[in-house]
């Protein structure tokens, strides 16, 4: 069974770059047809898909966040990462990594000075 675990700082200052890592176990991030996503949920709002990286390494961006997001992977570590630049308090949210029916537990990120 695939397990996902997010890690990263819980507090980021405005204008900085947020970096999160998703460590995958029980499956390989290069498995055919797997698409690994980052999703977030801000307080009082719905889920927002932020982007994905495919098993092939192809990238898929959210149009609304494209200019600020960067997703990459480390196949040796079986991890994929999210970088979100120029954060503001509006980026405060619980961030999840996701694959099909599998979700990480989520990590709270607060943007505040």
- As a whole number of angstroms, the C-alpha radius of gyration is 13 Å
The level of helicity is under 10%
Compressed to H and E, one letter per element, the order equals EEEEEEEEEEE
Contiguous uncertain segments of 5+ residues:
none
Total helix count? 0
Mean pLDDT: 97
Q: Which secondary-structure class do the elements indicate? A: mainly beta
Major β-sheet, in short? Answer: 7 strands, mixed
Name the shape in a single word.
globular
- How many β strands by DSSP? 11
Describe the structure.
This protein is mostly beta strands. The chain is built from no helices and 11 strands. It has strands spanning 3-7, 11-12, 18-25, 35-41, 47-54, 59-61, 69-74, 79-84, 93-99, 102-103, 107-111. Strands 2, 4, 5, 6, 9, 10 and 11 form a 7-stranded mixed beta sheet that branches. A hairpin with a 2-residue loop joins β9 and β10. The protein is globular. It starts with a strand and ends with a strand. The model has no long low-confidence stretch (mean pLDDT 97).
């Amino acid at each position: 069974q695939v397990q996902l675990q997010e890690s990263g700082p819980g507090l980021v200052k405005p204008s900085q770059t947020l970096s999160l890592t998703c460590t995958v176990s029980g499956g390989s991030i290069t498995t055919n047809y797997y698409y690994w996503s980052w999703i977030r949920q801000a307080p009082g709002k719905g889920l927002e898909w932020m982007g994905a990286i495919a098993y092939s390494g192809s990238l898929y961006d959210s149009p609304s966040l494209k200019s600020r997001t960067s997703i990459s992977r480390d196949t040796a570590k079986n991890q994929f990462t999210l970088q979100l630049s120029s954060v503001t308090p509006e980026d405060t949210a619980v961030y999840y990594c996701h694959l099909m029916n599998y979700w990480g537990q989520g990590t709270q990120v607060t943007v505040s000075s």
